[in-house]
Amino acid sequence: MTMRDSYSRRIDYLRISVTDRCNLKCVYCMPSGGVRHLRENEVLTDEEIVRIVRAACRHGLRKARITGGEPLMRKHITGLVASIKETGVHELGLTTNGIMLSGLAGELKNAGLDRVNISLDTMNPGRYRAITNGGSLDRVWKAVEDAGRAGLSPVKINVVPVRGLNDDEIPAFASLTFENDYHIRFIEFMPAACDGTWKRDKCVSSAEVINRISVLGSLERLEFRGGGPSRNFRIKGARGVIGIISPLSDHFCTFCNRLRLTADGKIRPCLFSGINVDMKTPMRNGASDRELERLFCRAVKLKPRRHLLNEDITSGHLKAMSEIGG
Ligand code: SAM
Ligand code: SF4
């Protein structure tokens, strides 16, 4: 069954946050003092997540992505990946900072994971430590290699360029596509609850990213928004792909096909809206599968037409990205 929201958008993608905890504290994602963590019994169990995904699959869910916090910190993540894949989702991805991925890549692939996105904002070890509050860049590079070897390909690398922090590395990241079949995805820096780090002038617009990359060669446009928010390009002669994601300068709300499930069991129809539908409380009070389906459909219908961050930054109901899954 195809699910359409109130604006006739087909909704077939769920981002599932499996934990609000993280082993890093990236400056653009979390406040330096950290966030209040959920207690263990506030977080959905594996069975609860799988029940929600099953209900969603009966209403047209085709793609899911596991995220967090850092999803690989969740106990028995491989088993959860296998159970989610068994619900019948066609494509299952996972977004990770890569710190714990290296030893798990093969297991995750065998459990049914199709693809992985690894977040990496700099190729300089000292800068990486500073941005992430102590992370080891070597471990992330190893994860990139091991993920490719395990067949979690194409490996996608998420880069958030922030002016004055890492934007000087935009051409170097793009150049990685000459020798590798990676997808390098530049995501505009979005406002989040992170010590006021976000300022409009720190956000490097997608237009500027494209401009800075174009010195490397002519950019060939690939398919138009291949089912996701990314506009894709290839530099002439390169093996890999450049993805441009513009949630602010060219918001893709018109094409948005996604909902988010938070670690504590709320469906958020939009990253920047305070609207949510609680699935956990009814489930723990004995809701039937039909009732869960009805709640899921209600969340779809509540999806706002678009976010209003460009008009009014205070409209964003901002939380740390780690709390809602980025
Ligand atoms: N911990 C995992 C990771 O870092 O990949 C998954 C969760 S993280 C919240 C998901 C994605 O959100 C990452 O690619 C991260 O770079 C991105 N992100 C976090 N804060 C952001 C912000 N303020 N603007 C744009 N992207 C952000
Ligand atoms: Fe953790 Fe990912 Fe946020 Fe960095 S971006 S603090 S790795 S959740």
* CATH class descriptor: Alpha Beta
Sheet with most strands: strand arrangement: 7-8-9-6-5-4-3-2-1-10-11-12
Question: What is the distance, rounded to the nearest whole angstrom, between the alpha carbons of the first and last residues?
Answer: 27 Å
The chain-level mean pLDDT equals 92
Which residue ranges are poorly predicted, with pLDDT under 50 across at least 5 consecutive positions? none
Give the C-alpha Rg: 19 Å
Q: Considering DSSP H and I runs of 4 or more, what fraction of the residues is helical?
A: 25-40%
Tally of separate helices:
10
Explain what you see.
The chain has 326 residues and is an alpha/beta fold. It has one domain: Alpha-Beta Barrel (TIM Barrel), CATH 3.20.20.70. Helix content is 28%, strand content 16%. The protein has ten helices and twelve strands. Strands 7-8-9-6-5-4-3-2-1-10-11-12 form a twelve-stranded mixed sheet. The longest helix is centred in the middle third of the chain and has 13 residues. The two termini are 27 Å apart. The model has no long low-confidence stretch (mean pLDDT 92).
